[in-house]
Automatic annotation (TrEMBL):
Basic and acidic residues compositional bias, start-end: 161-172
GO biological process, one term: isoprenoid biosynthetic process
The keyword Nucleotidyltransferase is annotated on this UniProt entry: yes
InterPro entries xref list: IspD/TarI, IspD/TarI_cytidylyltransf_bact, ISPD_synthase_CS, Nucleotide-diphossugar_trans
Keywords: Nucleotidyltransferase, Transferase
Start and end residues of each stretch annotated as Disordered: 152-191
Gene Ontology MF: a single term: 2-C-methyl-D-erythritol 4-phosphate cytidylyltransferase activity
Protein name: 2-C-methyl-D-erythritol 4-phosphate cytidylyltransferase
Pfam families: IspD
Length: 191
């Protein structure tokens, strides 16, 4: 199985002075954590990482020990400053050159550095079970609201079969508070 790890983000919105993927979390870069999660899944044979063009050697050095530690090839290529999609396209070009027999490519983002290896395994299992496209998901725990410019925030949409729970009243009189979660049978994703 081949994976592309997009890591060409600048880190501007994060307020970082370096590319986002090189920002440390508890002393380990997001890049290394994300790559380690993919490799620890045991299902990845070839990993292509897209990096900012001027940081390819730095990213390669950051990941060098990971590639040497096992039978997985780790390849760092220049990504695109334009968009994540453009970086994925450059990663796919590298995949086609290095692994022309690849039929399935996983795309992961270094910003999702704490994705457990078990999630990667479940995604691959779903692909191998015949699903053409798979997206990992987490159960929704937040209340989903609709926001409309003219009307403001509406109560959570009520759907037949949803679970509902009343919350303690803490708003002005006349304001109804409803907490709802969608019926999970309507969700189609790997959890």
């Amino acid at each position: 199985m081949v994976a592309i790890l997009t890591a060409a983000g600048s880190g501007t919105r994060l307020g970082a002075q370096c590319p986002k993927a090189l920002v440390p979390l508890a002393g380990v870069s997001l890049l290394r954590r994300a790559a380690r999660g993919l490799l620890d899944s045991g299902v990845i044979d070839h990993l292509v990482v897209t990096a900012p063009a001027d940081q390819v050697p730095v990213f390669a050095a950051e990941l060098d020990a990971l590639g040497q530690a096992g039978a997985v090839t780790v390849q760092v290529v220049a990504g695109s400053p334009r968009s994540r999609q453009a970086s994925v396209a450059l990663g796919l070009t590298a995949v086609l050159k290095a692994c022309p027999q690849a039929q399935v490519v996983l795309v992961h983002d270094a910003a999702r550095a704490l994705t457990p290896p078990a999630v990667i395994q479940r995604v691959v299992a779903a692909v191998r079970a015949g699903h053409g496209a798979v997206v990992p998901a987490l159960p929704v725990t937040d209340t989903v609201k609709e926001v409309r410019a003219a009307e403001g925030v509406s109560p959570a949409p009520a759907q037949a079969g949803e679970d509902r729970a009343a919350t303690q009243r803490c708003a002005d009189d006349g304001v109804e508070q409803v907490v709802a979660t969608p019926d999970r049978t309507r969700l189609r994703a790997v959890q």
